[in-house]
Model the fold of this input.
Amino acid sequence: MNPNIAILALIEIVSAITIGIFILALTYKIVQWVGRKYYRIQDYNLAYSIFVSAIILAVGIMISGIVQPLISSFRILNQSANTFMIAFKYVGIGAVYIAIAYTATILIGLISTFLYSKLTPIDEFEEIRKNNVGVALIISSILITLTLLSKNGVVLLIEAIVPYPELPPI
Amino acid sequence: MINRSNDRWHQREWELVNSSASFCTTYKSEEALSLRVGDQRNEMIVDLDEYEDFWGGVYKNLVLDSKSYIHFMVDSLKGISQEQGLTKPELAELVVTFVQDIPYSYVLSRDCASRDTGDSPCIGHVAMGILSPYEFLHSLYGDCDTRSVLIYTLLEELGFDPMIVVSDEYAHAMLALNVASSGDYLMHQGRKYYFWETTAKGWPLGMLPPNTKNINYWKIALVNEMSM
Done:
């Protein structure tokens, strides 16, 4: 067994699971709260459940993009000797990456639903509140598609702040 | 008559990527031998059209020509490895970090004034813009493919399964190595070859610089097809 690879694998698994659980649970709670407070949508509403699932999936897709930059950051940080500082910096860097990815997902979600609602004569959230599954499916598809399209750009943005070693101007 | 007055002693001290250990090697290089391998390189004929095939042909010739000239470096690295009890991945890292530690220099086929080389040293009017491994060890002038060819030759002699990859789009060459790792890699015959940037210190195995991330732009130039 190669201990270096095993450590990297463990860090990747633990980071993915902890970040995943925390972020997805947080997203679920926020979306449920927004639905209840602003749109009076109940938990058993199928259309809203579809919409919430799409938001969670979109967040998952975007957050999955930070795992590789996070591992790269760890490998670069690992070149310094102080273990405590490595752990401290790793958590800090991870928080920044998550914040960027999460903010990007929220912005994409807001922009996509806003634009779609402007393009159509109906009030989408009113339709979701009335359990219109068709509208929920369309909005969800738009949200996921836009997330997939913009994921590479967001990951590249995060890559730009990974503390890579300097490179000569080749 | 060949002028031997420029024979040189080189001493290099370098650290592994993770700074866990540092090493030192000293070697003598001869001007006459450097000139001779330089003449061999200038007389090389490669008649292939595709970008990666052309460079693969150049690299293959340089590797084959160089093996008998760089045994002193193979022996030195092998000696350090045995003395320190390094594992195989650590031996690969020893070789690559040794070359990464040598500051980057431009090797151009045209005049150095023809491009902006910044603060980096430059050697111009070199056929095909590449130096052979011995010339590199003698002059310490090495750009991306000059470095990759030296490392490829050393690693192959040490029993590894290396690869040289080139990118026309990025105008860059890099080493790739078939060892267990994580990160960015290229598949070849069912085996994973992890990228290894050689032009600067601190780049670990499997980490492509962000401005060269598109793996579709990397093509295999040279790989030992006999390796298992």
User: Anything to note?
Assistant: Chain A touches chain B at residues 2, 4-5, 8-9, 12, 68, 71-72, 75-76, 78-81, 156, 159-160, 162, 164-170 (CB under 8 Å). Chain A has a mean pLDDT of 85. The helical segments of chain A are 3-39, 46-64, 67-77, 83-119, 124-129, 133-159. Residues 99 and 115 of chain A are 24 Å apart (CA to CA).
